[in-house]
Specification:
There is one protein chain. This protein has about 325 residues and is mainly alpha-helical. It is built from 17 helices and no strands. Helix content is about 60%, strand content about 0%.
Length: about 325
C-alpha cells in the first residue's frame, strides 16, 4: 500500500471538518507525479527546508542589526518560532499541521537583509515597489533552483502571500500562521529588547500585563491558549476581544519603545543607504550580476525587478561585503 494514501486517509478520518486535506489540494503551478510516502504539504515543507533561501535566513536581521551577543533572534530563529506556534495551534484544533508548518517556514523567504529597513529601502528606490510577502512567493515560484522554483501547492503559496495582518488567507492553516507570526515577533522582540536593556518587564503598562501576564512566557502562553479556546469548532481563527485588544496595545507599545527607538534602530539609516547604493550600482552595471540573473533579463524579466531579486536575497554579511568590495579602497600591493 502507498504510505501517502494511508496518511491522507488518516487526515480525512481524524482532522477537523474545517481542515485543509492534502488529498483535496488545488494542486501546483506545474503538475507532477505524487510522492509515494509524503502528502503534498509535507513535501512542500521539505522543499522549503532544503532551499537556499531558507538557509540564508540565518544571516538576516530580525530586529537588531548585528547585535553583540549569541542569543538575539535572526530571521531564521523567528521563522522557527512562528512554525512552532503554528504547529501547536494547528494540532490543538485538529487542522493540517503539515500545511501550517510549510506556510510558516516559507513566509519570510523573500525578506531582505537588515530586516524591514532593507525592505523599506528597496520599496522606495525601486519603481516597481518591494514587499517581502510578494517576494517570498516570487522566491518559491521563480528564484529557487535556478529559475525552476519549488513548485509549491496553491495553499502554501496563498498562506505565504497573505501572512501579513492585511492579508486574508484562504485556509484556516494560513490564518493560524498570520496570527503565529504576530505572536512570535511580539514575544521574541520584547525578549530581545529586555536582553538589550531597551525595556524592562516593569515598563509594560499595567492594563496590558493584567490581561496577558507579566513575563514573555506568560504572554506567549495566554496568546496561544486564547486562540485555541476561541477557535474551537469554528470555521475561523480568532482571539477573544479582551486578549486581542491587549495584543494590539502591546504591539503599539513595541512600536513606540522598540521599533522606533533610536538606541535600538540607530544603524538602520546606514543599512537603508547601503541597500539603495547597491541597487543603484547594479542598475548601472547589470553585466556584473550573476549569470542566472542576467539570464532572467534575457528571458524578458524587467531589469528593476531582477536587481531587486539579487540585492534583496543577500544576507546582511554578504551585502556589507559587496559594498566594501565595490566602494572601499583596498591596500596597494606593489
Amino acid at each position: 500500500m502507498i504510505i501517502r494514501k494511508s496518511l491522507e486517509q488518516y487526515e480525512k478520518e481524524y482532522l477537523s471538518p474545517f481542515a485543509t486535506l492534502s488529498m483535496k489540494s488545488k494542486g501546483r503551478l506545474r503538475p507532477e507525479d505524487e510522492c509515494d510516502i509524503r502528502p503534498v504539504f509535507q513535501r512542500d515543507r521539505d522543499r522549503i527546508i532544503h532551499s537556499k533561501s531558507f538557509r540564508r535566513l540565518k544571516d538576516k536581521t530580525q530586529v537588531f542589526l548585528t547585535p553583540e551577543g549569541d542569543h538575539y533572534r535572526t530571521r531564521l530563529t523567528h521563522t522557527l518560532e512562528v512554525s512552532q506556534n503554528a504547529r501547536t495551534i494547528a494540532k490543538a484544533l485538529r487542522l493540517n499541521e503539515d500545511l501550517a508548518e510549510a506556510i510558516a517556514l516559507g513566509h519570510d523567504l523573500g525578506h531582505t537583509p537588515f530586516g524591514h529597513a532593507g525592505e523599506r529601502a528597496l520599496n522606495e528606490v525601486c519603481p516597481l515597489g518591494f514587499e517581502h510577502n510578494v517576494q517570498s512567493v516570487r522566491t518559491v515560484d521563480i528564484l529557487e533552483k535556478s529559475g525552476m522554483g519549488l513548485n509549491l501547492t496553491m495553499e502554501v503559496r496563498d498562506g505565504i502571500l497573505n501572512h501579513q495582518t492585511s492579508g486574508i488567507p484562504s485556509t484556516l492553516e494560513g490564518k493560524i500562521v498570520r496570527f503565529s507570526d504576530k505572536i512570535a515577533y511580539i514575544h521574541h522582540d520584547m525578549d530581545d529588547a529586555i536582553r538589550g536593556g531597551i525595556l524592562t518587564e516593569a515598563d509594560i503598562p499595567k492594563e496590558i500585563s493584567d490581561v496577558i501576564g507579566e513575563t514573555c512566557g506568560e504572554r506567549l502562553d495566554v496568546f496561544i491558549h486564547d486562540l485555541v479556546t476561541h477557535s474551537q469548532g469554528k470555521n475561523d481563527i480568532c482571539m477573544s476581544d479582551e486578549v486581542g485588544r491587549a495584543m494590539s496595545n502591546l504591539r503599539n507599545f513595541m512600536f513606540e519603545r522598540v521599533y522606533n527607538n533610536r538606541q535600538a534602530k540607530g544603524e538602520e539609516e546606514k543599512a537603508e543607504q547601503l541597500m539603495v547604493t547597491l541597487y543603484e550600482y547594479y542598475m548601472k552595471n547589470v553585466n556584473l550580476l550573476p549569470q542566472e540573473y542576467q539570464r532572467m533579463m534575457y528571458d524578458g524579466e524587467i531589469k528593476e525587478r531582477v536587481v531587486c531579486d539579487y540585492v534583496g536575497a543577500m544576507t546582511d554579511r554578504f551585502a556589507i561585503a559587496k559594498y566594501e568590495e565595490i566602494y572601499i579602497p583596498k591596500c596597494w600591493h606593489g
